[in-house]
Amino acid sequence: MTPPHQWPSRSDDDDTWGQLGDQFERWKRQSPRASMIVVGLLLLCIVLIWLATGVYTVGPGEQGVVRRFGKEVARVGPGLHHHWPRPIERVDVVNVEVVRRVEVGFRSDPRYHLVPQESLMLTGDENIVDAQAIVQYRVKDAGEYLFRVVDPDQALRDATEVGLRSVIGRTTIEEVLTVGRVEIQNQTREFLQQLLDTYQSGLMVTEVKLQVVDPPEQVKDAFHEVVRAREDRERLINEARGYQEDVIPKARGQVEQTLRAAEAYKAQREIRAQGEAAKFLSILEEYQKAQEVTEQRLYVETLQRVLPKAQKIVISPQLEGHLLPFLPLREQGPLGRPAAVSDGQRGPTEAVTMPQPSPQPARNVR
After folding, report:
1. What are phi and psi of 38, to 5 degrees?
2. pLDDT tens digits for the chain (366 residues)?
3. Which residues, 6+ apart, have CB-to-CB distance to 330 below 8 Å?
4. d(C-alpha 44, C-alpha 49), whole Å
5. 98 forms bridges with which residues in the sheet?
6. What is the 3-state secondary structure (H, E, C) of the chain?
7. Residue 331 to residue 325: CA distance in whole angstroms
């Protein structure tokens, strides 16, 4: 009994190929053009396979440059495309969206190490600095990127070194180490882009960033001390300016306040003087009309102002011949000390002697 699953033997394969060969020989004897047909079919298969090799795909963010016999004839975007296979045409696909980077003054791949011949530069005041930078860029023209420059990355690195040396060579070391980093980056990016456009490299610089800007290792500590001293100087100057901006407005305000108060006092005194002068003139006018009545009124008004502040004692004329007509007991304290008198009670003490009725001499008040 034969097993259900049995691999064909080598003799079976030989029989099959032998049968096919016999049939082909019979067909060849019957048709004189059989050889040509077979060759044509083989050529057709080869041509189809060759044409199939011209199918290619351009991914998102990429651009395909089609060359025919070495000359650029077309540019295609993302998608499925076909071109005449080699040697007639060929396609170079370039990613125009990815941001690339190049390092100047150091390398981080495969391990970080310095490149002093790129990083050591001379400043405008003839000092040496160690400047390391990273340039980020992308392809803006795939045709120029492929055919105008042999090695675009190396060309960009060399151009960056040229631009960085040119900008730092016009800048003092103080600006390079402190406040001029942003300006140096911007000027280097603009100079580098102009240089790349001159080369027709097809690259667009997106950012130039300084990584390290230091003096040489041998004098780094001394330069850092100088920079810290300058920063302290700037800080003290700014603090002094802040204090000046705070004190001067206050002083000006106080001056204005004093001037306004003086002007108000001046106006008040002038108004009061004018009022007193007008009052005096009105009193003089009334005095000239009735001198005796005015004198009597002034005398009475003066007594009304003075007498309420004075302590009045009335002594009878009959006690004038006595030894002690008046004993000031109210002014003595418990032990013979003068009693304290408040400010509101202080005033001149008058001893008023009641005179005998006699004609009062006339007073002339001028």
Report:
1. -65, -45
2. 444 444 445 555 566 766 666 666 666 666 666 667 777 888 889 888 888 888 888 889 888 999 988 888 888 888 888 888 888 888 889 998 999 999 998 988 888 888 888 888 999 888 888 899 999 999 999 989 998 888 888 899 999 999 999 999 999 888 888 788 899 999 999 999 999 999 999 999 999 999 888 888 777 788 778 778 888 998 999 999 999 999 999 999 999 999 999 999 999 999 999 999 998 888 888 778 877 887 888 888 888 888 787 776 766 677 666 656 666 655 555 544 544 444 444 444 444 444 444 444 434 333
3. 339
4. 9
5. none
6. CCCCCCCCCHHHHHHHHHHHHHHHHHHHHHCCCHHHHHHHHHHHHHHHHHHHCCEEEECCCEEEEEEECCEEEEEECCEEEECCCCCCEEEEEEECCCCEEEEECEECCCCCEECHHHHEEECCCCCEEEEEEEEEEEECCHHHHHHCCCCHHHHHHHHHHHHHHHHHCCCCHHHHHCCCHHHHHHHHHHHHHHHHHHHCCCEEEEEEEEEEEECCHHHHHHHHHHHHHHHHHHHHHHHHHHHHHHHHHHHHHHHHHHHHHHHHHHHHHHHHHHHHHHHHHHHHHHHHHCHHHHHHHHHHHHHHHHHHHCEEEEECHHHCCCCCCCCCHHHECCCCCECCCCCCCCCCEEEEECCCCCCCCCCCCC
7. 16
Distance CA 346, CA 185 (A): 87
Q: How far is it, in rounded angstroms, from Cα 30 to Cα 39? A: 17
Domains and CATH numbers, the chain: 19-52 (no CATH), 55-95 (no CATH), 100-215 (3.30.479.30)
What is the per-residue burial (b if ≥16 Cβ within 10 Å, else e) of 258-271? Answer: eeeeeeeeeeeeee
Q: Is the dihedral of CA 339, 344, 347, 350 positive or negative?
A: negative
